[in-house]
Amino acid sequence: MLSKVFFAAATACGLFVSSVDSHMVIRSPVPYGADSLNNSPLEPDGSDFPCKQRSGVYDVTTMNNMPVGVPQTLAFTGGASHGGGSCQVSVTLDKAPTKDSDWKVIHSIIGGCPTNDTGNISGDPKYEGAATFGFSIPKGMPNGQYTLAWTWFNKVGNREMYMNCAPITVTGGADNNDVLNSLPSMFVANVPADKCTTTEGTDVVFPDPGNSVETGQSANPGKPSGSACGASGSSGSGGSPAGPPAYSSAASSAASSAASFAAPASTQSTVPSYGTGSSSPTGAPANPAKPPFPFRGAGVVNGGVSASTFQIIPTAAPAPAAPTGATSPSNDTPSEDSDSGNADAGSSAPPSYQAPSSANSSTSSGSCSGGAVTCPTPGSVVCIGSSQWGLCDINNCAVPMALAAGTSCAAGVVSKRHLGRHQRSHLHHGRSI
User: Fold this and answer.
1) Low complexity: which segments have biased composition (predicted)?
2) Averaging pLDDT over each range in 108-117, 151-160, 233-242, 286-295, which range is the top one?
3) 3-state secondary structure of 429
4) pLDDT tens digits for 329-353?
5) How far is CA 110 from the centre of its chain?
6) How confident is the model over 29-54, as pLDDT tens digits?
């Protein structure tokens, strides 16, 4: 028993040391001020928001060229992954962003970012084996040079917000800001925590993640809490948060911090890759032991999809097509579904997708493909049988996803199973020794 206690304490100390020495930073895109960028989170008071303000914060060492609609890679260096969490990729037209800059989300990852490991993947600050993710600049975005940000809300450990920024040059886009202005604002939390905070042990569901959303198969979704938890493109420590776009129904309160969303964003062409350290896009996970997480913009669904690449479907709409089976994560309106529509484990190809007729559309297509099940309320969590859950999208479809170990789904709420009696038994046993 004492050896187990010692081992647990040593493990905890190891996690603490690794969290100090080897947090995560982006290596692709190449960040601003790469030589001066450290791997720590933003200051708890938000004083270094955005982009970890420091001397040389906006020094350009490498310009990242990003034609619209072309797949890009999000890759990391470091091993203190804190159980993963949720991430966003956002942009601003400002070349030297301030706390008042307007950040717009182009891709959201709910769970499994920057890894799907339960703890820290490595104690090496130079480790490059974390997951890699794909994203793209939406078609119709304005041409020019601006700033991209990766933000991360860790699942395990202190309530923190990580933010790295990179210079990008966008080409092949538009001469107006119409598409940019239609995107949701970047989520800000934990800086400071008294305005909005994420919940430890959960993968935060962004109040307004946009329509390019990727959800981990083992994600444990959770709401943020606080009076300022509506999508916000500026720090909670200063300035007035930008309100959600017109198509959102997000409420800026702890009582209802969820949103429905319909505006199309970017279409993805890759699934995350685990354990390769590769800085180029890949179409399948390099480590089969860790299941790939589906891109909601790419038509990748759970249940045995095996393909090395996924084709982007051209569209005449201002932004790439949004999937019929795309999910819109929200805990706003609980609902339930039956287990009759479980994901088809024999699926061998991604389904086809069509863009919504309008950014404000919320009507159902009348059918669901790729193993998705019908659901009544876009934006709600649905329980599918005893071992799966899904997020109802704008077409009233939900893709079944496996529940994380130790969790259950009931009445539209994913929660940890009750283990109180078992835990108390162990505590009593410990005291008797």
Assistant:
1) 221-232, 265-287, 317-330, 340-370
2) 151-160
3) helix
4) 444 433 333 333 333 333 333 333 2
5) 3
6) 999 999 999 989 999 999 999 999 99
Tell me if 95 sits within 8 A of 167, measured CB to CB: yes
Q: pTM surpassing 0.90?
A: no
pLDDT value at residue 382: 83
What are the backbone dihedrals phi and psi of residue 178, each rounded to the nearest 5 degrees, phi first? -60, -50
- Residues 6 or more apart whose CB falls under 8 angstroms from that of 17 comprise 123
Backbone angles phi, psi at 424, to 5 degrees: -60, -35
pLDDT for the residue 414: 75
What are the backbone dihedrals phi and psi of residue 354, each rounded to the nearest 5 degrees, phi first?
A: -130, 145
293: alpha, beta or left? (left if phi > 0; alpha if psi -120 to 50): beta
CA distance readout (Å), 160 to 7, 40, 154, 234, 325: 27, 10, 7, 16, 32
Length of the chain: 433
Distance CA 316, CA 117 (A): 39
Output the furthest CA–CA distance in the chain (Å, rounded): 73
C-alpha closest to that of 281 among 170, 132, 115, 139? 132
CA distance 165 to 25: 10
Per-domain boundaries in the chain: 1-314
111 burial level (CB within 10 Å; 0-12, 13-18, 19+): buried
Yes or no: say if 240 and 230 are a contact pair by the CB < 8 Å rule. Answer: no
Q: In degrees rounded to 5, what are phi and psi of residue 113? A: -120, 125
**Cα 351 to Cα 290, 297, 326, distances in angstroms:** 23, 11, 11
Cβ neighbours of residue 88 closer than 8 Å, sequence gap 6 or more: 105, 107, 108, 109, 149, 150, 151, 186, 187, 206, 209
Domain covering 1-314: architecture: Distorted Sandwich (2.70)
3-state secondary structure of 224: coil
pLDDT > 80? residue 186:
yes
DSSP 340-369: GG---TT--SPPP----SSTT-----S---
